[in-house]
Amino acid sequence: MDGSKLSSGEVHVIIGPMFAGKTTALLRRMLSEKDIGRNVAVVKSSKDTRYGLDSIVTHDGKKLPCWAMPNLSSFKAKLGDDAYEKLDVIGIDEAQFFDDLYDFCSKAADHDGKTIIVAGLDGDYLRRRFGSVLDIVPLADTVTKLTARCELCGKRAFFTLRKTEDTQTELVAGSDVYKPVCRQHYVDSPVVIEATRIVLDSLKVQSDPHVEPVPLAC
To answer: Which residues does the annotation say bind substrate (predicted)?
Structure first.
């Protein structure tokens, strides 16, 4: 592509807890871009198999075809150079699962002139940073934080509460495992209290050479 004809790109980030409408906002934006004649493509992580791999699907059933990829660095090769060059807008859903998010967004917007619209979780169920989503905030033209409704009281929900005692960070699931909650109901949750204790105890063992880890049963 002739660099003299290349306009600068943009990066727009949509974050928030689960059930806040991030995918809906991304889908709406992508359809709007498509309606005005821009060439668009949507990428999501192949880790998210809840609604199939060929579409992004909102919790209320709206969907748009997409590319399911294990990483973003292989997207251009998968799509093909010619098709990639013709793209105007790239949407990225469930962005927290892409480790190469920063590098992809930086190159696509700064050097390839693409508009990138990113939707993903900013925090995990323990309110810690999740993946690389927060890393691209310094790259962003705009950042929108959405909220849900607390499932317990109806107030604005900023956090995602895990209903189970699983402690792995990446646990892809829906309303059977997660629910949006306000600050009060997050802090008061016995599941959160116990999960936090387990994680903190684990970190203490890892950082203190004098603490012997509990042996696992064979």
So the answer is: 178
Give dist(CA 12, CA 144) in Å, integer. Answer: 8
Side chain identity, residue 20:
A
- Residues 73-93 have a mean pLDDT of 95
Instruction: Quote the CA–CA distance of 128 and 88 in Å, as a whole number.
Output: 33
Question: Strand, coil or helix: what is 27?
Answer: helix
**Chain-wide mean pLDDT for the chain?**
83
DSSP 74: T
Is residue 94 flagged as an active site residue? yes
Q: Does domain 10-206 have CATH number 3.40.50.300?
A: yes
Domain boundaries, the chain: 10-206
Catalytic site residue from 33, 94, 151, 170: 94
Is 178 part of any known ligand binding site?
A: yes
**Which percentage of the chain shows pLDDT scores above 70?**
74
Name the nearest CA neighbour of 131 among 143, 141, 118.
Answer: 118
> Phi and psi of 91, rounded to 5°?
-100, 140
Q: Tell if the pTM clears 0.70, that is, is over it.
A: yes
Structural Rg of the chain based on CA atoms: 19
